[in-house]
Amino acid sequence: MSMIGSKAANAKDILVRTIIAGVLLLIIAVVVAVIFPKLQGTSTITLGDGVFHARVAKTDSARVKGLSGVDNLAADQALLMIFPAADKWQIWMKDMKVPLDIVWLNQDKKVVYIVKDASIEDGTNIVFTPKSEATYVLELPAGTVQRKTILVGAIAVFDDNVAQGVK
Q1: What is the pTM of this model?
Q2: Residue 65: which residues within 8 A CB-CB, separation 6 or more?
Q3: N or C: which end of the chain has fewer CB within 10 A?
């Protein structure tokens, strides 16, 4: 084989390897985009007339952070905080950029308390405390409770497996 033929073969080899590497990176990116949200913990929740796509907060640090720093929340988005035991879990609006409706659910997923239109101005000055013990707290965009007819006594529907690994 001549020197020119060898260089052409090497260039072709490099091109094929580059294409294969690019395809593999693309496949990895797609897999990460599809699987990563599931690893973070998400759940679909039906409550009142609404269906919500919720991030799930199961650890102390995730619950404390909540939706702090989130710039906007689509009408069908939510945060579901899952606590390790039923209690009168308190919620504040620390570092919030969007107003919220806050819904407390007992261990049977029954709505036991609601706060409508919690303002970002409340910060840590106001702490919202339910009148009954709850295991779950659902944070929704302000106005959702009224728009989606969410009432005390309503039952939320979501996968029980979402509570696995609560700390």
Answers
A1: 0.76
A2: 57
A3: N
